[in-house]
Amino acid sequence: MDKETRYSVDLNEVLNAAVEAKNNRIDAVEFKKRVVASGLTRDVVEEISKLKKEPEWMTRLRLKALDLFERLPTPNWLPEFLSELDVSKLEIYVRPEAERVSSWDEVPPEIKKYYEALGIPESERKFLGGLVAVFESEPIYTNVRSELQKKGVIMMPPEEAIHKHESVMKEYFAKIFPPSDHKFAALHTALWSGGVFVYVPKGVRVTYPVEGFFVIGSEMEGQFEHTLLIADEGSYIHFIEGCSAPQFKKFSFHDGAVELYAKKGAHIKFTTVQNWSKNVINFNNKRAWADSYATVEWVEGSLGSKYSFVYPSTILRGEGATSTSLVVTMASGNGEWKDSGSKMIHAAPNTRSKVVNKNIGFNGGINVYRGLIRVNKGAKGAKAFVKCDSLMLDDKTKAYTYPHNQVFEEESEVAHEAHTFRMNEDQLFYLMTRGIDEKEATSLLVLGFIDDIMRELPFEYATVLNKVIKLELEKLGAVA
Hints:
Helices cover about 30% and strands about 35% of the residues. It has about 475 residues and is an alpha/beta fold. It starts with a strand and ends in a 5-residue tail after the last helix.
């Protein structure tokens, strides 16, 4: 097989094309033409499960999710232009021709180039405790430092975990973000492939961050990775999620999921730096459970993609649980739509939550904040605070805020504030009178606007975010 394996509606056609490609040595372009038609059918879902040698319960879960996807309506909170998204035109499973390895030297050059351009190997050597790299629909590289393994930390692709830790996967997989949540959650569960499974034992503190990095390598592709992280009692871990894709002529679709379980007294910090290319539609279903006195921190940098829908959420299940969510989005061009926000569900007494959303828009981009604070009856002493700020650099840009507060406990406190700003001309003028040119002055003001989120990023990623924002401001003409 020349380049990669692709599965379509007619599986026999795919297999025949593969055999012909091998026997007659047809080139990769011709092979793509023969099998590019993708389809969402029961046979395709069963074949994906069969290829991964999954247990019967996972196959049943996939098929149940497929049935839900077909029956559930498109969520009414999605913009009208996405109501006609035709998933059947996507390549829903793309398998790179590469075996999973634990050495960068063994990664095929044509795949390695994506990660090397982003500086991933260097970052791993300097400050990461573990890394799982996913290309297309499959993990192609996994490595965990020996000191973490000695402490009992488990980090591997979920495809491997389903065989080595089946009982844990069966207990936790797709439980806090079930396929019934909405149509695209069902699609994800039916088609999931790749991702990261992490387990941190009781009392273990992982001092080095670990990372999952996901790359979409072709157009008209669907990527459906799943990250499942379980932090046992009194443990700590910082997980970094990186996302990237080259620029394509046609769109690609990302529909990932993240499930976090913070046991009693555990602390999870989950950082995302998403820089998809401008023709990616991005869904990222993220939810956490926080038991008694556990802490969950979300830090989200959503810069790339054409359309993005990301709402990190925490269910505060145990007394004294806390959660923060810091999100920055950037809609940097006409037609770009960034839909973000956070959801905090207070289900126990004396729980705490804080949400800070920072939206940057220019050149006609559209930012939407869509958040939820819910305080259940009996959650006495719960406190929630939300701050949503939007910075618009021109008069073509739009910003919308849709807060939703549901408070069913009188002995609780919920506060929300929202501000929409235009670029401060006085501040810009002041900086320029100090010898700073307009481009640099604008960048400084934008970076100052998101400073409280930048401080929460690892230095390497804060630097990347800084560079990306500056490039976008210059490239798209946000400044003269």
